[in-house]
Specification:
The structure holds two protein chains of two kinds. Chain A contains no helices and eleven strands. By secondary structure, chain A is mainly β. Chain B has strands spanning about 5, 10-15, 20-25, 30-35, 45-50, 55, 65-70, 75-80, 85-95, 105, 110-115. Chain B is globular, with a radius of gyration of 13 Å. Classes of the chains: A mainly beta, B mainly beta.
């Protein structure tokens, strides 16, 4: 089993739609969780950290379920500019490696 | 002001050559990383340095040798380049906290093509 797995995608959704991405991780000792975004031919950038109680940043909501070792990202009211690859990222401890999932590709269509 | 910069941006070279990629960060971070992103877009960590000391060394051929002359720089030297080394190499930095590795700030990437 891979350390971090994500929905394969691609997701093609119309503008204004709500889309959800899932991510599972294998190491139950994982402590830090993030969502990064990577635009085509660009570097990854932090979208948001994921906290135990769940957190929201504008149209983006992240949830963590430690028991199921599952992370989700919900995007409401999709914009064309949301088109990108979304990377689920997991870390066990600060000096341990940061593990990136394979990413899920999102295309928001006019 | 570019926070994490890499040079060169593009590198096309022949098999068997030796090449270096340079990385600099001006964020004052204590940890720097090298990642490889292959044609399938999978981003994998190669090395991590904290305060100039190697703390993560994944299963990478010893043809790859990182060097950190100071906290702000982490260079990657590759000997005897092979076709399979073709990929995008990203440098990143973060400020490691007590509970979290911190946000990773990535450089723009170096696109390496080995012919």
């Amino acid at each position: 089993r891979k350390e971090v797995e994500q929905d394969p995608g691609p997701f093609n959704v119309p503008e204004g739609a709500t889309v959800a991405f899932n991510c599972t991780y294998s190491n139950s000792a994982s402590q830090s969780f993030f969502w990064y975004r990577q635009d085509c031919r660009k570097e990854p950038k932090l979208l948001m950290s994921v906290y135990s109680s769940g957190n929201e940043d504008g149209r983006f909501t992240a949830q963590l379920n430690r028991a199921s070792q599952y992370i989700s990202l919900l995007i409401r009211d999709s914009k064309l500019s949301d088109s990108a690859t979304y990377l689920c990222v997991v870390n066990v401890s600060p000096y341990d490696k940061v593990i990136f999932g394979p990413g899920t590709s999102l295309s928001v269509i006019p | 002001d570019t926070a994490v910069s890499q040079t060169p941006k593009y590198l096309v070279t022949q098999m068997g050559n030796d090449k270096s990629i340079k990385c600099e960060q001006n964020l004052g971070h204590d940890t720097m990383y090298w990642y490889k992103q292959d044609s399938k877009k999978f981003l994998k960590i190669m090395f991590s340095y904290n305060n100039k000391e190697l703390i993560i060394n994944e299963t990478v051929p010893n043809r790859f040798s990182p060097k950190s002359p100071d906290k702000a720089h982490l260079n990657l030297h590759i000997n005897s380049l092979e076709l399979g080394d073709s990929a995008v190499y990203f440098c990143a930095s973060s400020q490691t906290g007590t509970l979290s590795p911190g946000t990773q700030y990535f450089g723009p990437g170096t696109r390496l093509l080995v012919l």
